């Protein structure tokens, strides 16, 4: 029963490559043109944050949705990216672009490290261990305050540069395009990955572990590959976040950020990659729109998440579908 | 000698708090098969309810038990609103994580709005200090060390010696078969949450008596309870209790020998090591089910 | 025997989620005594029993027990009427002792006053259980677990007992023992509805048989129309 139900929404590659490629290019072209519409730096800032969240959420969808690995340490990989970049670029004086790339590699290595204790674990134990991992990465960072600034975090982290371009006085245009490029690269990577043989084998492993193993899929290796693959762009997103914000803070390990990003994954509908990206837009815009509510904002967001999860089990995809039916009925009736 | 008694005392004290929290998590997991990520928030809420009742002028002997009872209701309501509607969904484990996290965020921010960010403190269970085996300790902490095993023993005998406890253990093992002997499964789910919330609330009251409380005070105990539960195995009640005290002692010893900063990292290393050897926790084999 | 059917299923459609397993199934049971259900695996026998006992809510149709409409009632409410279902398999409560299981069987208020008397019956029927009273179910053999299942159901003071493949996967000797016990229960005055693969046993036990195929009753065999084993086997495989 359960296996069947989980298996239905995610047959890999239902849409042909051509159609997906057209949609992909068109979608990102629209995003690339957004700065023409939104000239102010506040709107561009929101878009940059959306891109970062979208990268983190869609990569989480790879391990959580496709891999079925309940990795609750995903945000720790993001945090590792933040701190790896900050320490490399600020303390070690490494070139920011090299630091950015290295952060992705370091996050990947960290993911491999987390995989070791969870190789033989199932379901809830994976949640617990990875959750513990996230909290303990934070504890280590706090405890090494000489280097990391502890709970104060790090400030004046070097930003990125593009030749001689002035990154500060361009209305965030350069950061916008770097973030977009990051999202494009990450999404392309994720879609290629899930449509590849490796992607098919992790889905097989998720849906019927015994069978997949008996067919020669290695649980340990695939789990490691899945987590490592989901870590690279997450780490880079963390590094970019640090470079963009010019600081590093332990807030990235907090429950509130994890809750928001996880909501994006689940609201979007798991095992879609695109769903998580769309949900990043919806939730972030919604959250920004409620800025006036002050203290009520997190409560309204939480309530919204609960209501959507209760009413639309398959996330925003289900909601959009329901809305479409509703509209279709309204349109039909007068005719 | 004083070092030794320091560690024993610290271990017993921390272990008591961890056990109170972890048992509730394990109880909910074994009965319903979901993980309650608002468990830490329950702890905070229990402390604030108690504080509010004391602020209303109720004496501690009435205010504290009343707060625990109110928490049972809160647990029941949470279960009915964000867990019960999801039962039967294929991805319930994951969805409940997000709904309880969101509910936790809702309650935490609600508490922030109602009671404000300023730290508060509860009266101690017993005022005063004493010296035992060369260690100066507060009577409040002694009371916690004594009361906790009593409560855990009461929980154990409730589960093992009463028909309702039997029903709760049965639901944990086989939901269909439970329905076929006429158990009210939804009510038992509610009961599991109510008991868990009461225990968390009591832990919050204990904590509020010796440390300042704030709306996010439950986050760290939740993390510790998670580690305890991983360590002790989640499919039993006794496993997490043993593990809670073990971790309490480990922390007390590690704090002394390696310092406060390295203890969490060490704990994690030990956790990884344990899980590589025994993936279902160190006490998992000894007893399964709610016993 | 009795005038009215003790259990009647009228045009029930049922299944899981979007999957419909039972299509408009109708049967009346208990007019002539014990009822046997047989048919190929995966054609809805278990779903039918789960629908009758309230584990699965029917999408349409009506189920009545002893003249009372029980359609859509919770499993708990149905247990309270005395309709007791022993599910297939022997998963049970692996970490409860036999004694615990018997106490659970008598959980419903209806069964509580008869607890001591029923316990005596169970112990008499399955003396083995008394020997292992404090042993956990997971440590028992398949046959013993099946005895615990049936014993638990008897503790619920059944007015109608539904057994889903009670002898599935058992060794011949234990199977005989269990069959005899089931016959004893029937002689003790509890009407039975039994799903069973062992046709010999089913023929011996029941006076009315239903062949369930593709989620519907394909053939009903009433008393006096008793069939040979070979004919039934032909029904199984001859479509």
TrEMBL record, chain A:
Its lineage reads: Bacteria, Pseudomonadati, Pseudomonadota, Alphaproteobacteria, Hyphomicrobiales
Entry's Gene Ontology cellular component terms: plasma membrane
One of the record's GO molecular function terms: branched-chain amino acid transmembrane transporter activity
This chain belongs to the protein called: Branched-chain amino acid ABC transporter permease
* Keyword vocabulary terms for this entry: Cell membrane, Membrane, Transmembrane, Transmembrane helix
Where does the sequence pass through the membrane?
Answer: 21-39, 45-62, 69-85, 97-116, 123-142, 174-194, 224-244, 256-286, 298-324
Membrane topology of the entry:
Multi-pass membrane protein
Grouped into one coarse class, the protein's main location is: membrane
Q: Which organism is it from?
A: Mesorhizobium helmanticense
Write down the superkingdom of origin.
Bacteria
UniProtKB/TrEMBL annotation, chain B:
Q: What is the protein's membrane topology class? A: Multi-pass membrane protein
Biological processes per GO annotation = amino acid transport
Q: Where are the transmembrane segments?
A: 17-37, 49-72, 92-116, 137-159, 187-210, 222-250, 256-277
Looking at the record's lineage, which domain of life comes first? Bacteria
UniProt KW S-adenosyl-L-methionine keyword: no
What InterPro entries does this protein map onto? ABC_transp_permease (IPR001851), BCAA_transport_permease (IPR052157)
Alphabetically, the GO molecular function entries are: transmembrane transporter activity
> One Pfam family from the UniProt entry?
BPD_transp_2
Q: Which UniProt keywords apply?
A: Amino-acid transport, Cell membrane, Membrane, Transmembrane, Transmembrane helix, Transport
Places the protein is found: Cell membrane
Keyword match Transmembrane helix: yes
Please provide one cellular component term from the Gene Ontology annotations of this protein: plasma membrane
Q: State the similarity comment.
A: Belongs to the binding-protein-dependent transport system permease family. LivHM subfamily.
Protein name listed in UniProt? Branched-chain amino acid ABC transporter permease
TrEMBL record, chain C:
Q: Where is the ABC transporter domain?
A: 7-239
Keywords attached to this Swiss-Prot or TrEMBL record, sorted alphabetically, are: Amino-acid transport, ATP-binding, Nucleotide-binding, Transport
What family does the entry list? Belongs to the ABC transporter superfamily.
Any single GO molecular-function term of the entry would be:
ATP hydrolysis activity
Check the record and name the InterPro entries matching this protein.
Answer: AAA+_ATPase, ABC_transporter-like_ATP-bd, ABC_transporter-like_CS, BCAA_Transport_ATP-bd_LivF, P-loop_NTPase
Q: Does the keyword Transmembrane helix apply?
A: no
> What name does UniProt use for this protein?
ABC transporter ATP-binding protein
Query: Is Manganese among the key words of this record?
Result: no
Read off the CDD domains from this record: ABC_TM1139_LivF_branched
Q: Which GO terms describe its biological process?
A: L-amino acid transport
Q: Which organism is it from?
A: Mesorhizobium helmanticense
UniProt-listed SMART domains: AAA
Q: Name one Pfam family in it.
A: ABC_tran
